[in-house]
Amino acid sequence: MSANYLLISLPKSTSTDERSLGGWLQTNINGGSVEVAKHELPGFKVGTLDSLVLQSEELSKVDQQLYGSIGKVLDIMASIHGESDVSHVAKQKVDGKYVDQFLETFRWNTSRFRLDKSIEELIKLISSEALNVDNDLRTTYTSYNQAKSNLAAAQRKQTGDLSVKSLHDIVRAEHFVLDSDHLQTVLLAVPKSLYESFINQYESLTEFVVPRSAQKIAQDSEYFLYSVTLFKKYVPAFLAKARDAKWIPREFDYSEEVIAKMRDEYQNASKEELTLKNDLLRLSKSAYSEIVSSWAHIKLLRTFVESVLRYGLPPDFYCYLLKLPQRAIEKSKQELIQRFGYLGGNAFSTDKKGNIVTDAKLHEYASLVDQDYEPFVLYEISLN
């Protein structure tokens, strides 16, 4: 599901009648193929002009930050469900509603974000709660990825060849010299192509290798697994020369405790991965709802602040949400500018095609006019 909107705020001076303004939008935007929803802007506590300018800058930053967090939540959901599976996105809800329904029927939550607080306090409260959720989700996602890597490593040990796979179900106590002060048994994965050189050379690879101590424990399509017994003092030199000969040492200190631990490794890794995956699924759903809701509150608060800065006090303006196909967004923007472009005053005018033309009266200040500037409060919203 893709929800694409234009959020606009217009001073009440643009129309003497709210119904006629809504009717004009419904009839003239995108040839009438538009859904129009009216939003009520609460009566926030307005401070000084300087404070509003600072709040405008902060709201812009938080707006982008939370929007980025929403994208991150969706990326995490996609990674859990699989890159090609996007059906889960359409099923996500915000405060019990699908995202398009939530946006179109949005009302300020006065119980959570009381209107007796200043705009500055509201910005801090809303953003801090949302970003805490975002941080919790990212931490859990990191833990899940680590658990997934551990499981993959455990799976490789279960399914790999004798040079890498776990040996806990292959070796037995009788393959080792145990409880000796002087002797030690080592394990080697010998490529089958090197079998003869191994048999002919292992006894003389270093001093004090026990003659005829090589035992074949197992084999697969690529390797033989052998044990060799020698004096402990010469084990490091023996293993170094074994590597030079392309025999692969397998580090394994036999004990029943180690065997039991290795036997449980895959089961424990699988259990941890599943637990964290389920935790991440639950947290990502709640994070999506929380962050989208917080972002919507910030968006409405930003609309209010920008409207006061644009249209002045007392706050007296209409706010509408226009639902449109993505392909109609730019066309609809131009239709709105054609109708309400005069609100931009000297800083903004359009030619017959609706393109921005900087007023010649601005002279040397003309270059300071932002080319992305709109003549009224207008935001594009796209949530997938």
From TrEMBL:
InterPro entries: ATPase_V1-cplx_csu, Vac_ATP_synth_c_sf. One of its GO terms (molecular function) is proton-transporting ATPase activity, rotational mechanism. Keywords: Hydrogen ion transport, Ion transport, Transport. One of its GO terms (cellular component) is vacuolar proton-transporting V-type ATPase, V1 domain. Transmembrane segments: none annotated. It holds the Pfam family V-ATPase_C. It comes from the Eukaryota. Belongs to the V-ATPase C subunit family. V-ATPase is a heteromultimeric enzyme composed of a peripheral catalytic V1 complex (components A to H) attached to an integral membrane V0 proton pore complex. Subunit of the V1 complex of vacuolar(H+)-ATPase (V-ATPase), a multisubunit enzyme composed of a peripheral complex (V1) that hydrolyzes ATP and a membrane integral complex (V0) that translocates protons. V-ATPase is responsible for acidifying and maintaining the pH of intracellular compartments. Subunit C is necessary for the assembly of the catalytic sector of the enzyme and is likely to have a specific function in its catalytic activity. Reversibly leaves the enzyme after glucose depletion, causing the catalytic subcomplex V1 to detach from the V0 section. Subunit of the V1 complex of vacuolar(H+)-ATPase (V-ATPase), a multisubunit enzyme composed of a peripheral complex (V1) that hydrolyzes ATP and a membrane integral complex (V0) that translocates protons. V-ATPase is responsible for acidifying and maintaining the pH of intracellular compartments and in some cell types, is targeted to the plasma membrane, where it is responsible for acidifying the extracellular environment. Subunit C is necessary for the assembly of the catalytic sector of the enzyme and is likely to have a specific function in its catalytic activity. This is V-type proton ATPase subunit C. It comes from Ogataea philodendri.
